[in-house]
Structure formats: structure tokens, C-alpha cells
Amino acid sequence: MSLYNPFTEDVLKIIKTLPYGSVMSYGQIALCAGHPRGARQVARLLHTMTKKHDLPWHRVVRKDGHIALSKGQGGSIQKELLLQEGVGFKSEDVVDMSKHRYMLSLDSQ
User: Domains of the chain, with CATH numbers?
Assistant: First the structure.
């Protein structure tokens, strides 16, 4: 029996399986987990569960590719981690989503 509800379990699973060099948006993860309007819940789960579950938090960005965190709050670290994985940026803090968005099939869950 799980300690978490099915949405939380699905979000954790999706984030844990994000491939090296790829990103997903908060909303995209929420949609794949069955709650198309749950982007804020995804952000909250990332904030509260990253350390406990060793989540690759840096692979989650806004739907337009922007890094959501300010530079001083982890945005600089996130960008550096993404650059180390070969993720390209269209501008200073905007990931090129056309090249690096991971498309998880809803059927593969």
C-alpha cells in the first residue's frame, strides 16, 4: 500500500523517468498524471519531495521553456545542470522546447 495518492505516485514516477537531456513542463507532467489543471500541484510536489525521492528537479520547466526559479533561488543551478546535460537554450533562461521537450505517451504509463 502506498503512502501517496495516485496523482502523487504518478507525478513522482514521471519525474523520476525523465531522460537525461530532456525536459517536461509542470502542466505536461500534470496532464500525463491525469490532472490537466494540476501544474501547481506538480510544483509543490517537486518542492517538497525532491530530496526525499532524489528527483531530477532541474528537468522541469514552465510550458514556454522558462526556468521558473529566480537565479538566486536555484535558477542558476538549474540552468547549469541542464547545460551539462546538453540542453540548449533559445535565450538566457528559456529552454528550446522544440528540441528538448520529452513527449511521454499517455499510453506508456
Answer: 6-104 (1.10.10.10)
The residue with greater pLDDT, 47 or 104, is 47
- The span from the CA of 15 to the CA of 46, in Å, is 9
Whose CA is closest to 69, among 88, 46, 86? 46
DSSP string over 48-71: HHHHHHT--GGGEE-TTSB--S-G
pLDDT of residue 1: 62
Write out the three cell numbers for 75: 535558477
Q: Which long-range contacts (CB under 8 A, 24 or more apart) does 4-11 make?
A: 6/34, 7/33, 7/34, 7/35, 7/38, 7/41, 8/45, 10/34, 10/109, 11/41, 11/42, 11/45
Q: Which whole number is the average pLDDT over 77-95?
A: 97
- Burial class of 46 by CB neighbour count within 10 A (0 to 12, 13 to 18, 19+): buried
